[in-house]
Amino acid sequence: MTERTKQPAEPVVYVIDDDSSVRAALEDLLESVGLRVRTFGSPGEFLGSPGDDAPGCMVLDVRMPGRSGMDFHRQLEGLGIRLPVVFITGHGDIPMGVAAMKNGAVDFLAKPFRDQDLLDAIQCGIRKDVARRAEESATAELQARWDSLSPGEQDVARLVVDGWLNKQIAARLNLSEITVKVRRGHVMRKLQARSLADLVRLTGRLGIGAPGGPSAGSP
Amino acid sequence: MISDHAQRSRRSGRFLRFALLAMAMAVIFVVDTAMNYEVAAAVFYAVVILMAARGSSRHALVALTGLCVAVTFLSFSLTPQGNFRTGLINMGISITVILMTTWLVLKMQTATAAANDAQARLMRIARVTSLEGLTTSIAHEVNQPLAAIVASGNAGQRWLAQDPPNIGKASQALERILGDAGRASAIIARVRGLTKGEPPHRSEFDVNQALLEVVASSQGEIDRRDILLSTELGAGLPLAMADRVQTQQVIGNVLLNAIESVASSGKPVRRIRITSELDDGRIVLSMFDTGVGLPQAAGEQLFEAFWTTKENGIGVGLSISRTLVEANGGQIWAEPLAEGGAVFRFSIPTAVQAETRDD
Predict the structure, then answer these.
(1) Residue B151 contacts A, CB cutoff 8 Å
(2) What CA–CA distance (Å, rounded) separates A109 from A92?
(3) In DSSP terms, which residues pair with B336 in a beta bridge?
(4) B147 and A25: CB-CB below 8 Å?
(5) Pick from B355, B224, A99, B341: which is nearest to A85 by CA?
(6) Alpha-carbon distance A205 to B10, whole Å?
(7) Is-contact B179 A142, C-beta < 8 A?
(8) Mutant choice from B136, B140, B154 vs A, greatest count of A C-beta within 10 A
(9) Which residues contact residue B20 at a Cβ distance below 8 angstroms, ignoring those fewer than 6 apart?
(10) Which residue of A17, A18, A28 is the best one to mutate when testing the B interface, meaning the one whose CB has the most B CBs within 10 A?
(11) Whole-complex ipTM
């Protein structure tokens, strides 16, 4: 629908409800507080439309013909969609609410709800999504930095993180100690790591650093 | 078209059956008359009665039996030869067989009707138990437009609160509100239509008999709660003209209320008294109980849906009762009793009353 824009994207609220008048009313309500809204009559319709590259929050009806909101919520993770979800329902009961919250929903509101409750829940969802996206983009950037290392530099980095000394690394990789030192310098610079501890933390975020350091086994 | 056709085929089927019966009777008559006294062909009239048993009314069956007996007599007097004494004994046996057959058929018909009634009652009870599911879906249906109305109202307020106010958007919100309100009331009208059920099937019946049947089916509950139940049924009441099953359902509802009220009152005197009487051309059933009585200022609310004083009640019993009573042309009302407890009364039109009203 919208072209990807590189400026800090405005958050989008996705409303999925099979009832057209609820959709229209929520769209108007959310627009009246200046939020961007997209509405869908079913989960299928939502999945069939291109996603926005923007933080967002999903307002999901529990009872819909075909796929229920609860089932859809459980499937979201598998579909690679990590939008925070605010449930709205026409016949909420406590067990249903508990199940939704356990599954990670932001809130569970019974229709008819106070507008402020919905807006608060949506704002909370958007904040969560903004934080998640920031975290994800930081990780992506880090990954890009890691990918910019040469294979030889990556080998050295792994062993450094695993706790080997330069001398040991040189022996294991069959290199001179000088080369190891040079590569190690490149790793620190390219990954923008200020210290060894920083390097360990950064590579930890990428899941790098295989078990099997000097303390775990013999060289 | 289809129903017309079905009716015609049913009518022709009935005619065929009638012709068959008449033919069988004629054959038996001829054989019985032509043969000696010693041959008791009249016994086979019992077969005719059995053939007629399905789908004939009690009156028709009794009339047919009378006819068979009369014809047996006629054959006997027309038979020209044979031993007269043997013929007399044979005739006696034939008539006894005919009468016994009729008696058994009538008993069987009553039992079948009772079984059918009981089944119909069970089905209606099942419908009430599905009420919980029904209310959930009603709540869901009605909450949709309500949610839309509230959200649109909030949106409208926010559009108006802007500087300058967005009148166009606000009036759009108002329009949606009106539309959704209309939708909500349409849902309610539809639900009402859904629960209204079938129109009553009116027929003549003995109210006292119907009442005693309900009492008998509740006897276990009454004994278990240690309640003394007495009836003072009016003698010689005219037949009622109403749906028998629905009337019994109302009696059952009111009786159940009385039982629960008495049981929960904790008073030493635990009594229910049921009376039936003719009042101004209609039959009035009254159920006096020594229960908790009526809450003050309950008034008309008593019979409104979802209004209850019971902890576990959903408050539809009396509402359903009123609907049924009124559908049958009667009224239901309640009064507190000075000595504690309450009396619930309802009226049922009589057959005579219904006729004069129809004219």
Answers:
(1) yes
(2) 8
(3) B342
(4) yes
(5) A99
(6) 84
(7) no
(8) B154
(9) B51
(10) A28
(11) 0.71
- Residue ranges with strand state E in B10-111: none
Subunit contact A19:B144, Cβ cutoff 8 A: yes
How far is C-alpha A151 from the chain's CA centre?
28
What is the enclosing helix (H) or strand (E) of B203? Answer: strand B203-205
Encoded amino acid at A35, one letter = L
Could you list the pLDDT tens digit for every one of the 359 residues in chain B?
Answer: 444 555 566 667 778 888 888 888 888 888 888 877 777 788 888 888 888 887 677 888 889 899 888 988 888 888 777 777 888 888 888 889 989 999 998 888 888 878 777 766 665 665 555 556 667 667 777 888 999 999 999 999 999 998 899 999 999 999 999 999 988 888 787 777 665 656 677 889 999 998 988 888 777 778 878 889 999 998 888 999 998 888 888 888 888 888 888 888 888 888 999 999 998 889 999 999 998 887 765 666 667 655 555 554 545 667 778 888 888 888 888 888 888 888 999 999 988 755 555 44
Contact B150 A112 (CB under 8 A): yes
Using omega within 30 degrees of 0 as the cis cutoff, is the peptide bond preceding A8 cis?
no
Number of Cβ within a 10 Å radius of residue A155: 17
Across the interface, of B147, B162, B173, the residue whose CB is closest to A112 is B147
**Contacts with B148 from chain A: Cβ below 8 Å:** 19, 21-22, 24-25
A64 CB neighbours in chain B (<8 A) are: none
Q: What is the pTM of this model?
A: 0.50
Structure tokens belonging to residue B91: 């005739």
CB-based contact, A34 to chain B, within 8 Å: no
Is the minimum CB–CB distance between A33 and chain B shorter than 8 Å?
A: yes
Look at A115 and B183 and tell me if their CB atoms are within 8 Å. Answer: no
For residue A209, what are its two tokens?
A: 């650093």
Q: What is the DSSP-derived secondary structure letter of residue B350? A: B
Q: Do A28 and B152 touch (CB under 8 A)?
A: yes
Rounded CA separation B132/A47 (Å):
35
What tokens appear for A197 in the block?
């501890």
Return the residue matching tokens 């590569």.
A183
Give dist(CA A72, CA B121) in Å, integer: 42
Coil, strand or helix at B306: coil
Which whole number is the average pLDDT over A32-47? 92
**Closest to B187 measured CA to CA, from B143, B251, B239:** B143
Decide if B143 and A25 are in contact by the 8 Å CB cutoff: no
